[in-house]
Specification:
Shape of chain B: globular
Radius of gyration of chain A: 24 Å
CATH class of the largest domain in chain A: Mainly Alpha
Structural class of chain A: mainly alpha
Number of domains of chain A: 2
CATH superfamily of the largest domain in chain A: NADH:ubiquinone/plastoquinone oxidoreductase, chain 3
CATH topology of the largest domain in chain A: Methane Monooxygenase Hydroxylase, Chain G, domain 1
Radius of gyration of chain B: 21 Å
Largest interface: A-B, 53 and 56 residues
Distance between the termini of chain A: 56 Å
CATH superfamily of the largest domain in chain B: NADH-ubiquinone/plastoquinone oxidoreductase chain 6, subunit NuoJ
Order of helices and strands of chain A: HHH
Number of helices of chain A: 3
Distance between the termini of chain B: 64 Å
Oligomer: heterodimer
Strand content of chain A: under 5%
Helix content of chain A: 55-70%
CATH topology of the largest domain in chain B: Four Helix Bundle (Hemerythrin (Met), subunit A)
Helix content of chain B: over 70%
């Protein structure tokens, strides 16, 4: 097994341990605690008052712009990630290049702000 | 035995045994992916289908890592699981009536979907076999994110800056389309 895969194996082992630990404690809890189910206990919790309507509620169409913008800036993050691994090597050159990259994308955010899409009404 | 001690033990494995470990990892991920993919197309709840898609895409990311393509694997997690599925869920939540239990599709649609699925599978399988045949994957030379970064910031620096303009165009286009007026 190469060094590369071994370094990722560490992640797998730690992730597995995390899942194992949580499920072990939750399982232990369900073994120890008394279980007395009533219909009152199994209704959805909603700020302490009785929930109204179905749990599948339609969300406001206004959120859609935020979802679209999130996708765009997520793609931006994909390009920032390799740059961050070699930050010291590129020095000022990398900083300037990334500044240009982020500035051009920030223009989009500025456009959205000027078009009042970010206002919450 | 601690995790690190287990990793030290890996050193003593011969390359053949190490390959077995990779194959076992591949098999576990592949089986998980196939089961999740089947559940995704058979489940009646469209939100559950999107969540099964997350499992499939995470499996794809794992397979990329197994092949040594670190950057592609991380991108898979960030863009597909992080953004595309979130967009899917947004789409589901915004369209009224289509979430929750579905009545299922008619047999006519089922036939067409099956045909399209077979066609896509055939074309992709033919393309993969045609272009790679029995080429071996370079197991010992994983492409690290640093290498990808070096090529972005040397050879492909102009395309990299052009990408930002492309993303800007996509963002402004999305805003113009999404606006009411």
């Amino acid at each position: 097994m190469s060094d590369f895969l071994r370094s990722w194996l560490v992640l797998v082992v730690f992730g597995g341990l995390a899942v194992l630990l949580v499920s072990a404690f939750l399982g232990l809890g369900s073994l120890l605690r008394p279980s007395r189910d009533t219909p009152q206990k199994s209704i959805n919790y909603e700020s302490g008052v009785d929930p109204q309507g179905d749990m599948w509620a339609q969300s406001n169409i206004r959120y859609y712009v935020f979802a679209l913008m999130f996708v765009l800036f997520d793609v931006e993050a994909v390009f920032i990630f390799p740059w961050a691994t070699r930050l010291e090597v590129y020095d000022v050159f990398g900083l300037v290049e990334m500044a240009i990259f982020i500035f051009i994308l920030a223009l989009g955010l500025f456009y959205a702000w000027r078009k009042r899409l970010l206002r919450w009404v | 035995m601690t995790a690190l001690a287990a990793l030290e033990g890996m050193d003593r494995l011969t390359s053949g045994e190490a390959l077995v470990a990779q194959n076992v990892a591949f098999a576990i991920m592949a089986i998980t992916m196939v089961v999740a993919a089947l559940r995704m197309v058979t489940t009646r709840n469209v939100v559950h289908a999107a969540l099964y898609l997350v499992v499939v895409l995470a499996g794809v990311a794992g397979q990329f890592l197994l092949l040594g393509a670190e950057f592609v694997g991380v991108t898979q997690v960030m863009v597909y699981i992080g953004a595309i599925v979130v967009l899917f869920l947004f789409g589901i939540m915004l369209t009224k009536g289509s979430f929750g239990e579905d009545d299922g599709v008619s047999s006519e649609k089922r036939l067409m979907a099956g045909l399209v699925g077979l066609l896509v599978f055939g074309v992709m399988a033919a393309a993969l076999v045609d272009s790679f045949e029995d080429a071996e994957v370079a197991r010992e030379a994983p492409s690290t994110t640093a290498e990808v970064s070096d090529s972005i910031f040397s050879t492909y620096i102009v395309p990299f800056e052009a990408v930002s303009v492309l993303l800007l165009a996509a963002l402004i286009g999305a805003i113009v389309v999404a606006r009411k007026d």
